[in-house]
Amino acid sequence: MDRKAVAAIGIDLGTTYSCVGVWQNDQVEIISNDQGNRTMPSCVAFTNCGRLIGEGAKNQTAMNPTNTIYDAKRLIGRRFNDAKLQEDIKLWPFKVIKGTSNIPKIVVSYNGEEKEFSAEEISSMVLIKLKEAAEKFLGNVVRDAVITVPAYFDDSQRQATKDAGHVAGLNVLQIINEPTSAAIAYGLDMRNNITRQINVLIFDLGGGTFDVSLVTIDKNSTITVKAVAGDTHLGGQDFDSTMVDYFVEQFKRKHKIDISVNKKALSRLRVACEKAKRVLSSIIDTIIDIDSLHDGVDFSMRISRAKFEKLNEDFFSKCIEMVEKCLGDAQMNKKDIDEVVLVGGSTRIPKVQQMLTDFFQGKELSKKIHADEAVAYGATVLAGKLTGCTGKRVKNLVLIDVVPLSLGTDLYDGSMSVIIKRNSPIPIKNEKTYVTVEDDQEIIGCNIYQGERSRAVDNNWLGKFNVAVPPAPKRKSKIRVTFSVDANGILNCSGVELTTGLKRGLIVTNYKERLTTQDIEKMLDDAHKYKLQDEEYKKKTFVRNALEGYIDDVKSKIKKIGNNTKMIHKKDMEIMEIAIEKASKILNESQLDDFDEYEKALNQLEKVCLPIIAKLV
Ligand code: ADP
Ligand code: MG
């Protein structure tokens, strides 16, 4: 039977790193995982003897590139034919195919079989690992969680993230925007210094996404988001990619070899570039050395900070453009900003900081909150509040967030009719009436789009529903379309036929191309199955390690005794040596699947050696 869930958790499910906090004793505890780290790579690897999540998965990327999945966040809630996704697919060493309902599926070899996973499923594996870390810390079961998403995530990406939480066995209390979450962390940290309403610009540049958010924080802990801007495809990984491309070209020039076809080499180069990029944040040049990168040819090249900045200048400029856009949307001037707060690993890049300082005319940037943990911190505070925490600091917290992108439907001429404008505060409900454009039209079809372009198809298509109308001359039949966005930023739509004056028209709410309830149920079952497999694997490696350890112990004892016949009979020594040889043979020759063999060998070895060792003087 399940133990009672005691605490709620806050999860920053990042593109490259994730982080979890628990709310306990009126404060946030950021949890270290089994490797002792407070953030964990959002990476899952599949091997012939099990599944690895986090550091374990990331560390073996270069050896197993096609079955090591990262960037699930760049896939989640996107359709397979999305142009950006198609670009990413070209870069990923793992295979992505088109699944049902146009949902992308990742194909891996797992335990010797080919398996397909959705991004929701991969993300749920990361979430499960974080949940388990929290459970281990608390010594109790965790159910309730707040999960963060980039402010610029669209509706399908939010919904899919919520589904991933569900597959991980979590009750998702709320989906909250990452910069808003960081604002909570900042607001709480600064609560004693805030004497009036202040305007804070949160600049969050991570591994995969960029978000900028303009919020006001008042002395009563009310955080109001005024505007958000950003790009769900801009971050540290793009900077890594430009470096990889640059070095592929340099390598071609120097050695006349194209390494772009060698997945393993590219993977190793990418890992080295990411490391070099971090080094360039503290020193001004570095050398990348990789032994035998391709066909025995070593890689050794220098890169300066200036070169790195040049390679990525377009990305950096885009960040500043987004800051301008956000200020414009909030109808504020740069001098109205009281604090510029840095969040996300990529804000450690000196050029990014310098461009921001310059933009704000020499303003000092605030590094008061932890760039890697602030998002999880804020989510945990909200989780505490939503589960009825009574602490005053948190009870007073009020959050007012916004819709990141306009929502609307297409008109007969293909233009976008906006129903909810971007940056409207949430929750929100708006409606509009539409009429038929032909005589005896039978249905009015509503495509739902999200975005700012005036031609509907240039925006992000979210789904479609049809409303049946009675035959009538054109413009006589009417429908009312209602859009509502909840506190999670998730959209619900309905259409009602109005001509008859009764609300008996077709009401449609289920319009989205996303995982079905059955898909999710199956994933939940699978998650349980994979967990059992992982446990089995752990048990096997545990027994194997126990055997290896025991062999080493006995060997070192034998070595210590040496030829000292005063301590041991020659015959006993021989018996132990033979037993060690036998056990070592099993250790070296058996497969991990021969779990029973290890166990037998360990028992046998102990049976022989224990009595002899006990006799030692
Ligand atoms: P996300 O939330 O998108 O997972 P994070 O905020 O955890 O991302 O940031 C991870 C990104 O930050 C990675 O791309 C990483 O390479 C980059 N990063 C971390 N430290 C540094 C540094 N010192 N200099 C430059 N980039 C860094
Ligand atoms: Mg982040």
From TrEMBL:
<keyword id="KW-0067">ATP-binding</keyword>
<dbReference type="InterPro" id="IPR018181">
    <property type="entry name" value="Heat_shock_70_CS"/>
</dbReference>
<dbReference type="GO" id="GO:0016887">
    <property type="term" value="F:ATP hydrolysis activity"/>
</dbReference>
<dbReference type="GO" id="GO:0031072">
    <property type="term" value="F:heat shock protein binding"/>
</dbReference>
<dbReference type="GO" id="GO:0140662">
    <property type="term" value="F:ATP-dependent protein folding chaperone"/>
</dbReference>
<dbReference type="GO" id="GO:0005524">
    <property type="term" value="F:ATP binding"/>
</dbReference>
<dbReference type="InterPro" id="IPR013126">
    <property type="entry name" value="Hsp_70_fam"/>
</dbReference>
<keyword id="KW-0547">Nucleotide-binding</keyword>
<dbReference type="Pfam" id="PF00012">
    <property type="entry name" value="HSP70"/>
</dbReference>
<dbReference type="GO" id="GO:0042026">
    <property type="term" value="P:protein refolding"/>
</dbReference>
<comment type="similarity">
    <text>Belongs to the heat shock protein 70 family.</text>
</comment>
<dbReference type="InterPro" id="IPR043129">
    <property type="entry name" value="ATPase_NBD"/>
</dbReference>
<dbReference type="InterPro" id="IPR029047">
    <property type="entry name" value="HSP70_peptide-bd_sf"/>
</dbReference>
<dbReference type="GO" id="GO:0005737">
    <property type="term" value="C:cytoplasm"/>
</dbReference>
<protein>
    <recommendedName>
        <fullName>Heat shock protein 70</fullName>
    </recommendedName>
</protein>
<dbReference type="InterPro" id="IPR029048">
    <property type="entry name" value="HSP70_C_sf"/>
</dbReference>
<dbReference type="GO" id="GO:0044183">
    <property type="term" value="F:protein folding chaperone"/>
</dbReference>
